[in-house]
Amino acid sequence: MSGGSDGDSTLSRAAEEAEELHRIRDTYFPANPEDKTSRIQAGADHALSLLDSIPPEERRSPAQRAKYEYLRGKVLEAFNEYKKEAEDHLSKAVKLNPSLGDAWLCLGHSIWKKGDLASAKNCFLLALSKGPNKKILCYLSMLERKLAQGTENQAQYVEESIQHAKEAITLDVKDGYSWYNLGNAYLTSFFVNGSWEHNKLLHSVKAYQNAEKDPDMNSNPDLYFNCAIANKYLENYERALTGFEAAALKDPGLNSGEEVQQIVTLLDKIDNSIKGQSRGKRLKTLAASLAEAVVDSSHKKAI
From which domain of life does this come (predicted)? Predict the structure, then answer.
């Protein structure tokens, strides 16, 4: 009896470590991306060794085998690149126990990485059929934006993306990642619809602002970059500039410098047209100083 209990305890510890690996992947954005990779690798090695320590006789039942395969696949799926081994383990898990919603989610994400978007969506929908889940809804929303690219019915896909993003928020109104995803959906809708609806940008910025309230999102450079893009098109240049600076400090690899330079050029034209009005001069000065900061940040990254 004690052996089985020990095996269950080890599975529980491995499950916690697998979940932590996914949290690191989704919310940890160090200045040096290699720090993230090495942290995930170390965590994965430890979690896999835990699973290896479970004797074969303690993972013989279909339920035990399903959980073992699921956790092994989930650990391997935490890496950004596609791993066939992860897909194989997750496929075995859902065959042994089709009710494992998170296994379907991880399998869908793994399949997405190799470019099979239709099969990935099918996995997400199967995961969602096991019960409401904000993470599944966010992934489904993101995938629908990806599916929209290069299709004739882009607007329909993006509208579905917005609806699934909203559903995720109803499950946890304080979850920053769900708000960030909704902001991305509205920003995509602004560009896709062609009419460049002002309200889409306003909704986008509001969603990003709600995302910023979640401490887990504070280190996400894409949040600040995308919000800055929305503010740029709203002609909120001061907010856009500070957003691009924040994004550059968190990830110098983003093209924040190009965006800032575009605003510098635009404000230079505005400054010339309004002949030295104080707001135009102040923004131009701010833009110039931020351009230097962004370039300096990128230079440090290269070093």
Answer: Eukaryota
- How far is residue 64's CA from residue 159's CA, in Å, rounded to a whole number? 40
pTM (2 d.p.) = 0.86
pLDDT tens-digit series, residues 71-84: 999 999 999 999 99
Q: How many CB atoms lie within 10 A of CB 174?
A: 10
CB atoms under 10 Å from CB of 171, counted, come to 14
- Whether residue 207 contacts residue 180, with contact meaning beta carbons closer than 8 Å, is answered with yes
Residue 289 neighbours by CB distance under 10 Å: 12
Kindly report which listed range (81-95, 261-275, 283-297) carries the lowest average pLDDT score: 283-297
Helices (H) and strands (E) in the chain, counts: 14, 0
- pLDDT recorded at residue 81: 96
Most distant CA atoms of the chain, gap in Å? 84
How far is 244 from 221, CA to CA, in rounded Å? 9
The span from the CA of 271 to the CA of 28, in Å, is 40
Nearest to 180 by CA among 143, 227, 239, 137: 227
Give Cβ neighbours of residue 219 (< 8 Å, ≥ 6 apart).
27, 28, 29, 30, 250
Cα distance between residue 186 and residue 217, in whole Å: 18
Which residues touch 100 (CB under 8 Å, ≥6 apart)? 66, 67, 70, 93, 94, 130
Rounded to whole angstroms, the Cα distance separating 300 from 251 reads 11
Q: Give the separation between CA 264 and CA 270, rounded to whole angstroms.
A: 10
Cα gap 39→1, rounded to integer Å: 35
The predicted pLDDT at position 62 comes to 93
